[in-house]
Amino acid sequence: MNPKTYFRVLTLLLTAFLFVSPIQNYGQEKNTGEFTVKSESYLDNGKTMFKVVVDINQEIAAKVYSVYIYDKEPWKSGEVIEKKEKTTERVITFSNIKEGKYCFYLVDEAGNMAGKWIEIKQ
Question: Residue 20 carries which DSSP code?
Fold first, then answer.
């Protein structure tokens, strides 16, 4: 990543810090207008697994955007667990997600960012 891109991403992430929603509990939905994140459990060979469904606002879904799942805040050395880049899909499902707290970010082509937390637990 070149220094200009790195600076731009860092600036966006720090700006997003101001807009991050509070932690969300399993089975609840949080809707900030940009996107909704909902966790669901399912059985796979008798083992409880989790998936996360990201429902994008129709206005945003008409544009190209990316969704990233971080294991902790990106500005605290968080790593990308899953991602869906450059898509216009309205509903994105991430499967085989382990229990824990995750930071979700939606970034559009213009660099606008929205984020929220979700806690996945049984």
Answer: P
- What is the rounded distance in angstroms from the CA atom of residue 62 to the CA atom of residue 9? 23
Structure token pair of residue 15 = 């700006």
Q: Is 48 left (phi over 0), alpha (psi -120 to 50) or beta?
A: beta
* Contact status, residue 13 vs residue 74, Cβ threshold 8 Å: yes
The residues, ordered by sequence, that sit 6+ positions from 101 with a Cβ below 8 Å of its Cβ are 23, 72, 117, 118, 119, 120
**pLDDT for 26-58, tens place per residue?**
343 333 457 899 999 888 888 888 999 999 887
56, β-bridge pairs: 35
What are the backbone dihedrals phi and psi of residue 27, each rounded to the nearest 5 degrees, phi first? 85, -5
User: Cα torsion for 79, 81, 87, 91, to the nearest 10°?
Assistant: -130
